[in-house]
Design goal:
single chain; about 90 residues; mainly alpha; 1 helix; transmembrane
Amino acid sequence: MLIVRFLIISICVIYIIRSLARIFLPMLFQSMVNKAQQQYGQQQNPFQQQNKSERRAEGKVKIDHVPPVKKSQIPDNEGDFVDYEEVK
């Protein structure tokens, strides 16, 4: 009798959890999708604003950073580089 009672209660609990999951899981996933879309929109927003400002200045060149000019590490008195050919 105890085993039958346990099985009936277990089946009822599983049925209730399954029914609640069908109701609440879609709402949970929808909220997660909405949050992800908002975060993606916030990440893309600065790039879109930058692209809009670049489109306004069409035909003009904008340079953000000019790297410093590096001097040659080989001194001038070292000589010239000569290509070689392999002799067989």
